[in-house]
Write a structure and sequence with these properties.
The chain is mainly alpha-helical. Helix content is 56%, strand content 0%. The chain has seven helices and no strands.
Length: 179
């Protein structure tokens, strides 16, 4: 028996028409804008990370050199001062820091330390030209201050941007020698 003859309503049905396949392209404009934003964000992040690493490369090299210095050495304070000055000159023009010494130098170094640590570091660095030099305890303290200074990841402040009203790290009347 034929099903079409048994049910006349089935005779009125038409064949099923499948819809066209949906294409992946073109995607709506919002998705293109989102994709461009994500790509731009990734490129921006990669560039910033590379700049950050390149900026801190001299500081990390100074840390490697710092690890080679011996606090028991009689020239330790002078070696530390030279290392810090070399680090500063790798970030800023040589003419700004090569001749810098004394209170202004200690103040600039102190910008990366707490106020009391900056004062102590300045006093220890002043002993680099004294006959007695540093004791082993003082060398260890200078080692600690220098390590803190080099490990700080903040950007260095240029001399021209340094505030003028910084508390002096020690007596202004004390003579200083340049290196």
């Amino acid at each position: 028996m034929n099903t079409a003859q048994t049910n006349p309503a089935l005779m009125q049905l038409e064949d099923i028409v499948l819809p066209e396949k949906i294409s992946q392209f073109p995607i709506a404009p919002g998705f293109w804008i989102l994709a461009l934003f994500i790509i731009a964000s990734i490129i921006f992040a990669v560039v910033k990370i590379k700049q950050h690493r390149r900026y801190h490369l001299p500081r990390k090299a100074a840390l490697a050199d710092f690890e080679q210095l011996e606090p028991a050495n009689s020239q330790y304070a002078s070696d530390i001062n030279t290392l810090l000055k070399r680090t500063a000159m790798s970030y800023f023009p040589r003419e700004d820091f090569a001749k810098l010494d004394g209170e202004r130098w200690y103040q600039w170094l102190g910008l990366r330390l707490s106020e009391q640590d900056a004062i102590n570091m300045g006093q220890l660095l002043k002993k680099r030209y004294q006959k007695d030099g540093l004791t082993l305890t003082e060398s260890t303290q200078l080692h600690t201050y220098t390590e803190q200074w080099l490990n700080k990841r903040s950007r260095f402040i240029a001399l021209s941007d340094m505030p003028e009203n910084i508390t002096p790290t020690s007596h202004q009347s004390e003579a200083s020698c340049s290196q």
